[in-house]
Amino acid sequence: MFSRLPPVTLGLLIANVAVFLLQQVAGQYMLAWFALWPWGPAQAVQTSHGVVMVGFHVWQLVTYGFLHGGIAHIFFNMFGLFMFGAPIEYAFGRNRFLIYYFVCIVVAAIAHLLVVHFATGGFYPTIGASGGVFGVLLAFGMLFPHQRIMLLIPPIPMPAWVFVTGYGLLELVLGVTGTASGIAHFAHLGGMLGGLVLILYWRGKFPFKPRQLLLR
Fold it and tell me: Which end of the chain, N or C, is more open, meaning fewer C-beta atoms within 10 Å of its C-beta?
């Protein structure tokens, strides 16, 4: 099953699982250095190993996307990447898919930081591959809009574009209303936005043309 996955999708799955296992050994230090922290002055945070100074570093715009908060968190993210990553990688090609995934991760991080900074002013870490996965889901809905997707709960089949649109609207409502706190809804939406802009750019929807080096 996994041997049939294209290389970038397989590599991302392996990397996420490997980092998750590493977290079980050095979790607090991984969070302190590689989770996404709000920009601004470093702050002291009490951990099981004592007080640690934490703050924003530019590499966190990428590294947060490989950390997860538990078995359920990484399972659902990797399940989404497993289900939708392969068809998008086959459609885009390896190079474009890799670029696409990391653009979604970074834009998701920026969107979340903006919301945290200007709306809540909170100081807490953000982790998870959801921004990249939501970007992949957006791409699936755009490239295969009429592909049928079966929901788990309730078990209702629907076209991909309906599922993706509905999921995006749900994330927007939950984010604006503050429902399901503790979930980075605007990071999910940021991942979808980053993916949308990049796909439109590759399709020539902007006045500047895609660079040829981004081809397969």
Answer: N
